[in-house]
Fold this sequence. Notes:
Blueprint lengths: L1 H9 L1 H15 L9 H20 L7 H22 L2 H4 L1 H6 L6 H27 L12 H24 L3 H15 L11 H7 L3 H15 L5 H25 L8
Amino acid sequence: MGELFRDTYRYRELIWALALKELRVRYKRSVLGFLWALLNPALLMVVLTLVFGTIMRFSIDHYAVFLLSMLLPWTFFSQSLAYSVESIVGNGDLLKKVRVARLVFPVAAVVSNIINFLLSLLPLMLLIVLMRFPLHWTWLYLPIPMVGLFLFTTGAAFFFATINVFYRDVSHIVQILLSAWFYFSPVIYSLDFVPAKYRWAFQLNPMVYVLNGFRLGIYYGMLPSPQSVVMSVACGVIALLMGFAVFRRYQNSFVYYV
Length: 258
């Protein structure tokens, strides 16, 4: 892990430059530009609220806030994975020409999406004000679940970026995996809606613990239990350790496959 923190700090300016470059490329020739960082989750919220809050009628007060409290961090996770899985392959030419730590590419993909995530909190705050929903003081706690989410996402980014170098089908598999993972995670519903006899299976999903603090802080105005905080950070640390271990083992051979 020393190598991870040392190289991340050493190449911090390059990581930041790559993250900004990715954002510029993503919104290049777009009329609305960075506004899409605000509009994408807002439009998805409208669709899901109409389906699950109106048509299928989940009996949840202020369902839009309930939904966005989990949807925004989930969107950060899914977009980070979708971009980072191609981060090594997409920068293959640069890897062959410049001697640089390989980890800068998946880390930059995650950093660019955390900028999007922080921007997307603005329309959520505006929605809360417009709906006259309480703006709980527990928003101040959100940096803690953000740390767990960032660690977990970075670990997953390392893992899938590595595997995709050797098996290019992985980028397509990740899209399918994310779709299934979304519905297996309590984003559009609460775990209370899951029958008790099946709940144990959902609790095996690490995203339950990684995302839980966001809904508690934003929607319920509550702080998680110490056990919940430990589980959230532990999931992030374990994912980071496992993902980077795989990445570190194979990073020297990337240049031969990209």
